[in-house]
Amino acid sequence: MRVEEVVVDHGRALGFSWPGRGERGVNGVGPETAGVKDVVIRRACATDAADLARIQVDSWRETYRGMLPDHYLRALSYADHERLWRRTLAAPSATFVAVLDGRPVGLASGGRCRSFRGFSGELHLLYVLRAAQGRGIGRALFDAVHYALAVAGWPDMLVWVLAANRRARGFYEHLGLEPVGRATALVGGARVEEIAYGWRD
Ligand SMILES: CC(C)(COP(=O)(O)OP(=O)(O)OC[C@H]1O[C@@H](n2cnc3c(N)ncnc32)[C@H](O)[C@@H]1OP(=O)(O)O)[C@@H](O)C(=O)NCCC(=O)NCCS
After folding, report:
1. E-strand spans in 1-120?
2. Residues of the domain holding 57
3. Are strands 121-128 and 157-162 parallel, antiparallel or unpaired?
4. 184 phi and psi angles, rounded to 5 deg
5. Which residue is closest in CA terms to ligand 1's atom 36?
6. How many Cβ atoms sit within 10 Å of the Cβ of residue 51?
7. pLDDT of residue 136
8. How do 39-43 and 33-36 pair as beta strands?
9. Is residue 101 a part of any domain in this protein?
10. Is this structure's pTM higher than 0.90?
11. Any domain includes 1
């Protein structure tokens, strides 16, 4: 059964049901398209490329000031990211967009995990613009990707987080993920520490 839209009071009441996340299902259907109050979470399509680029670049600049070099954040380009999103969205992908009052404000994207042994799925990106945070949108986007990956046969999920990104770490810990590894990466010439958080089915 495919649901075109589910309108409910809060993200926690979304009709999600998938392996390992308990009894939260409504008719056992997934979040192909789901609404949370005035928020709609839906699969991204090719025409979303420019909006996804804007969300990604703006969110990076909002979130990573002081964590990543200024010159790196300044150099981020909407046009480059739009091109990358066009390419990503040309093929089937677990990419979702959150639309608040008609304006795209968040995105999440996942796929097969290639960065860490022992996990099959990976949440590659999760960004909610600051002005839209704290309304359950991050959780709803997380759930949408998690569900899509579980349906694809990858129920356990990994996500890499900058160690300095305390807010995101708190969010993932609140959702029940646990640290499973660490790595260092070079970003814009700076060495940064990353933590892998995992959700095991
Ligand atoms: C991290 C992020 C995705 C969270 O999204 P959000 O929409 O603000 O979070 P939500 O409102 O969906 O919160 C969901 C739950 O997590 C909890 N939560 C959120 N941040 C938390 C934190 N830092 N510590 C503990 N709990 C937290 C909320 O209280 C809420 O709890 P509840 O559902 O039990 O009431 C968002 O802040 C964001 O995009 N940040 C900038 C980009 C970023 O860092 N992305 C992650 C890169 S790996």
Report:
1. 7-8, 33-36, 39-43, 94-100, 103-112
2. 7-199
3. parallel
4. -115, 145
5. 128
6. 18
7. 95
8. antiparallel
9. yes
10. no
11. no
Which has more confidence, 13 or 113?
113
In a domain, 31, yes or no: yes
pLDDT given at position 37: 56
Arithmetic mean of pLDDT, 132-148: 96
- pLDDT per residue as tens digits for the range 74-104: 999 999 999 999 999 998 899 999 999 999 9
Q: Across residues 118-134, what is the average pLDDT?
A: 97
| Dihedral over Cα of 75, 78, 79, 82: its sign | positive
Distance between alpha carbon 10 and the CA centroid of its chain, in Å?
Answer: 18
Give dist(CA 70, CA 174) in Å, integer: 30
Pocket-forming residues, ligand 1, beta carbon under 6 Å: 12, 59, 63, 126-128, 133-139, 159, 161, 165, 167-168, 170-171, 174
Nearest C-alpha neighbor of 37 from the set 136, 115, 128, 150:
136
How confident is residue 38, by pLDDT bands cut at 50, 70 and 90?
A: confident
Residue 2 counted as domain residue: no
Q: How far is the CA of 23 from the centre of ligand 1 (A)?
A: 22
Which ligand 1 atom is nearest residue 133's CA? 8
* CATH (domain of 146): 3.40.630.30
Higher pLDDT, 5 or 124: 124
Domain count, the chain: 1
